[in-house]
Amino acid sequence: MHTHLTGPSLSLSLSLSPSLSLSFTHTHTHTHNPPLSPLSPHLTSPPLSPLSPPVQTTSNNVQAIIESRVEKRTKGVYVPVGGKRMLAFLDDLNMPANDDFGSQPPLELLRLWIDYGFWYDRQKQTLKCVKDMFLLASMGPPGGGRTHISGRLQSRFNLINMTFPTVSHTHTTT
After folding, report:
1. N or C: which end of the chain has fewer CB within 10 A?
2. Residues 76-127: tens digit of each pLDDT
3. Within 48-140, where are the H helices?
4. Strand pairing partners for 14?
5. Which CATH architecture has domain 46-161?
6. Cβ within 8 Å of residue 35, ≥6 positions away
7. Among candidates 49, 46, 22, 24, which has minimal Cα distance to 36?
8. Which three-class secondary structure state does DSSP give residue 168?
9. Where are the domains of the chain?
10. Is residue 151 within a helix (H) or strand (E), and if so which, with residue range?
11. Contact 108, 96 (CB under 8 A)
12. How many CB atoms lie within 10 A of CB 130?
């Protein structure tokens, strides 16, 4: 399945298959970039990198996808292409399967970045500091292939729980 969305300031292509494939073109033309706050209306202006980790996604895949969206600024420091800010959206955060030790390596890589601001270059084994990146994640309740995420990762996010409305909430009386 292939999806292509186009708007005045972005173009997003997703190819849904067992391996992740996505494309993003950001054509925002603001000359003034105000600082982002958590509730800023400009939150959609940074490049968006959607990640939907299927069960077979590895930490190598997640790291490669994010690194494809950043460029080297100085030794060991990487920023989003064009010097912008990047919002990485992680759909189905609790989909990666647990390994033999009960951990979820793709999520542990993200937790490492959240806690310390870096991960390691897998070939040179040096630090790679990724700056100006924000994470936004969504997930469903555990069950049906979805697992529990670790408390260590969950504690790093601000959580919003949304439940389905009941029939009595969807009908209004006038």
Report:
1. C
2. 999 999 889 999 999 889 888 888 998 899 999 999 999 999 999 999 999 9
3. 59-67, 105-116
4. 3, 22
5. 3-Layer(aba) Sandwich (3.40)
6. none
7. 46
8. helix
9. 46-161
10. helix 151-154
11. no
12. 20
